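Internal ticket #5521
Category: modeling
Description: The requester needs a full-assembly model to guide mutagenesis choices. All entity lines are attached below as received. Residue total reported by intake: 394.
Assigned to: D.W.
Attached entities:
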Amino acid sequence: MLEALNTQPADKILALVAQFKADPRANKIDLGVGVYKDSEGKTPIMRAVKAAEQQLWEQEQTKSYVALAGDPGFADAMIGLVLGAEFPRAGVAAAATPGGTGAVRQAFELIQMANQDAKVWVSDPTWPNHLSILKHLAMPTRQYRYFDAQTGAVNLSGMLEDLKKAKPGDIVLLHGCCHNPTGANLRLTDWEHVISLMQERGLTPMVDIAYQGFGDGLEADATATRVIAKSMPETIIAASCSKNFGIYRERTGILMVVAGNDKSIRVAQDNLAYLNRQNFSFPPDHGARLVTMVLGDKALRADWEAELESVRTGMLALRSQLSAELQRLSGSDRFGFLADHRGMFSRLGTTPEKVAQLREDHGIYMVGDSRMNIAGLNAQTIPTLAAAIIACDI
Ligand code: PLP
Ligand code: TYF
């Protein structure tokens, strides 16, 4: 049987992790996989998460199953975090999933069950796993223009022009904030245009929000998602807790479906639980419980917010320093976009050959499309990176 299988294409981001590890150079710099690192290169367990974990260890009485859609308390807490405390709970169906990726996968399957012909429109570029899962599910997929390589900003007119070709019932996959891989994001006024177009054409938004709190702040990063959910008749939201709670390996995420009428919510809730049962039955609980504890306890929540805020402002400082250093060395403003980008990533906007040159000649590892993980830098490595970028004539 097994000889009938073909080997599968490797995940290019994850392949880079192994390549970096194998590089013996002491001064190598890892700007690859999207995991937050502090100035010492460590990915810490957040203080509030550690405290919640200790409480949980002391208080948890059973490890029995929870529910197919996960703990309703987790759904309540996450709906509050993503959609805001005022958002009507009755208008949301939700199910816990293994990570944000699990939510993306379940969302695609839900779409497929509802409408086999729906095309999923994704940004060009988008997170490679979006395309890979869509391909695996054999779902019709289209790309809309998104990134303007000249300016390093969003190509809004190209995006709108392409989305005008979408048919009623099609899905538009949007990054709620901190676009991966480019770092370029829509402004609120731009979002209004996208929303109007989706309304006019009868399109359904699917928001993937994996970096809430990494861009402009916890509330600001959720604004677009909230406006979409309020403006559209139906909205699908896949949220990840991996980055903002630093609980990557706990596999914590949630799929939400927002709709205007009770019947739709009931049937969506039923289908979310059904899909969980088909794919893995009960979702993991440990990370979800920690998130619920942190969000539900005043002191833990305040501490978590403070730590997340220092992560966010730290990355912003790295952006400014890199942009300023490149301005100094290049004598131009052409790297100013690095300071305007938000989240963990920025697309430098150079060729795979130059990316290979940075790796081979300078020990600097970034994804082949020139995506850099800003959190992989620190005050000492920024001048090295800037000098290498100039030396490679980028
Ligand atoms: N969506 C995007 C755009 C991402 O960058 C990520 C990566 O972390 C995810 C979803 C989901 O991540 P996870 O499955 O680790 O929660
Ligand atoms: O884009 C990233 O680097 C993160 C982490 O298959 C990641 O989202 C990368 C690849 C992957 C899963 C997660």
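Resolution: model delivered.
Comment from assignee: The mean pLDDT is 97.
Ticket closed.
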